[in-house]
Amino acid sequence: SPPGYIGYDEGGQLTEAVRRKPYSVVLLDEIEKAHPDVFNILLQILEDGRLTDAQGRKVDFRNTIVIMTSNIGAGTISKNQTLGFSIGDESGLSYEDMKERVLGELKKVFRPELLNRIDEVIVFHKLTKEEITTIVELVLRRLREQMGEHEVAIELTDEAKELLVEKGYDPAMGARPLRRAIQRYIEDPLADFVLGRSLEPGSTILVERKDEDTVDITVIPGEITPEKVTVPPEEPEGSAGEDDHSDAD
User: Considering the entire predicted model, what is its pTM?
Assistant: First the structure.
């Protein structure tokens, strides 16, 4: 800020954060969208290992790891891959060939002096079906924790998880639609199902796939996980009868 304004004598957000915690990881997401002045700052950090703030103070970045992410070349990857979850395409394009194409796209966008100061460029593989399933498990873990606050467990059958994988993955956007799919196919129907019901503490809510776009929700009383659900190793296996039942879109 100019003199006379609140905060004019304070350092920048980046320099202040690193000055206080020099052993840090700085993540610059979608760096290609940054203002050109940001790249001038990056050149100083990557070349000299330090940055001078507006107050003339030098901040040491030598113990800081700087990670930049970019979507440059994502169109090339999607264009050269088949539909589904494979890594290559019909022509057998290898990972090394894919990486070479992406690096070529980077050179069209970033100045050589910036690229030459980057230690490593990592091109990620396209997400596989197994990896999408793992992401589903991670998101569902948070949902289980929320339901656990009400002393109620929630489990999904493998078929219900497969529904989320199918609806939550897009070849061009990766796993970004997954959050919306979980809200549409699990959280919203679950909220409608629970609304107005008195759930017994220790009950398990079982979510099953009914058809192409709907799920079936059942409440099973008692602290027992249904047999048909594939449970994590740390959770006990068992069986119980059905008590309450509902179809949800």
Answer: 0.63
